[in-house]
Amino acid sequence: MSVQLQKPSTTFTATWGVLCLLFVINLLNFVDRMIPAVVLEDIRKAYGLSDLWLGILVSSFTVAFALGGLPLGRLADTWIRKHVLTGGVLIWSAFTALSGLAPNFLSFYVARLGVGLGEASYGPAAVSLIGDLFPRAWRGRAMGLFMLGLPIGISLSFIVISKIKVLTGSWQTPFVLAGVAGLLVGGLLLLIREPQRGAQEAETGATLKKLDQPFRKVFAIKTLWWICLSGVSVNMASYGTNTFFNSLLQRYYGVASMDAGWMAAAVLGLTGLLAMTLGAYLADLAHRRNVNGRLKLGAYCLLAAAPLVAMALCQPRGSDLSVFMLLYGAGWVLFFMYYVSVYTAVQDVVEPRLRATAMAVYFAAQYLVGSTLGTTLVGGLSDYFGKQQMAAAGAAAMTDAFKGQGLHLAMFMVPVMLLATGLVLLMASRGLVRDVEKLHKGLPLHSASASCL
């Protein structure tokens, strides 16, 4: 089933202007959620936490993000989306700043819950807007630009946050500065005009009617079940890596804090720039050749990423770190292909009135199960293996060296989850053609003109 390329029908400047604003705020989104990972060793020492408790602390964000996303996703499908977006940005930015003022573990945990709740509104509403700004054949590139906020945000987090910490001598200051930045930028969302829901789909009038049993209709889409399962496994790999990679470099490989920040930025962030830009084009090209081409592309990339990351972790301590960086970085380039493949596929099988709701369901599975398990499982395994290493050495006290060895062994969970994600995406691709034809049969795309800014 081939797909003909159509140019976006809305005003060029307005459409891409809105997308660029959404990208900038998405960048701040990932900066705010990544700060704890950058200063994780400082938090561990300040609050006296084990790796398991560090994982639980980071998961506070993901729990609030997942649970809050369901009602907020429905709100984005039924209310003015720019108001949902603005409110979310202001809430998460305020709580990010409060994270830097938290005097103890409990108050920090509560502040991160607030950050997660605020950010829960952003993804579903923003993806819904993009679906109405761009026709299907262009959504891979549009989503690629939007999701560039992920790798750039991660890169800026590890580089800028580490520098701010060194210059100020405080790991709390970056939270306050990032929160203030979000408060300043978030208000710009009020200036945009929304496209009509379903503006890039066939004009039948159905997109404006009230929809009964929205969640039941979403759960009836079989492809979405596989996509949600892929979200669980991919976020176990993603959050396990993003949370503990910086600590792995410092503890196991003995890298200094600032140097670890640069290395983490390169492996976990800059790799995404290549994947999101080139990958978005490749995803749209694969889609034009076959309607399930995006998902197949994502599946093959994840299957190839797993052995590369495993080989990186097999590099012995004391060996040339450039080999470790090259292998892990290559694996992470392929990992990032997941986003331009899957996020767009959700829009392909879900009607416009349900897109934010569907993304909220997907995020609920991805974050409540995947992210929470990813951080807590790596943290728990790290503690377990660290104690094993201590016992094997006949030592009476836990040291950072044993903690580093335990964390290194725990990180092998990441390639296992990458492999699982690739297999699940292959299963998802098998039913996507059927679900797309079921949704769009007799509803060809039309040219719509809607001012968006």
Description:
The structure is a single chain. The chain is mainly alpha-helical. It has a single domain, classed as MFS general substrate transporter like domains (Growth Hormone, Chain: A, Up-down Bundle). Helix content is 77%, strand content 0%. It has 17 helices and no strands. The N terminus and C terminus are likely disordered.
Percent strand: under 5%
- How many runs of DSSP E, i.e. beta strands? 0
What CATH calls the topology is Growth Hormone, Chain: A
Unreliable stretches covering 5 or more consecutive residues: 1-10, 203-208, 442-453
CATH architecture: Up-down Bundle
Gyration radius (Cα, Å) is 21 Å
Class inferred from helices and paired strands: mainly alpha
Overall tally of structural domains? 1
Q: How many DSSP helices?
A: 17
- What form results from the Cα inertia axes? globular
The CATH superfamily appears as MFS general substrate transporter like domains
CATH class categorisation? Mainly Alpha
* SSE string, helices as H and strands as E: HHHHHHHHHHHHHHHHH
- Residue-averaged pLDDT, rounded? 84
Query: What summary fits the major beta sheet?
Result: none
Oligomer: single chain
N→C terminal distance: 35 Å
Can I get a quick summary?
By secondary structure, this protein is an all-alpha fold. 77% of the residues lie in helices and 0% in strands. It has a single domain, classed as MFS general substrate transporter like domains (Growth Hormone, Chain: A).
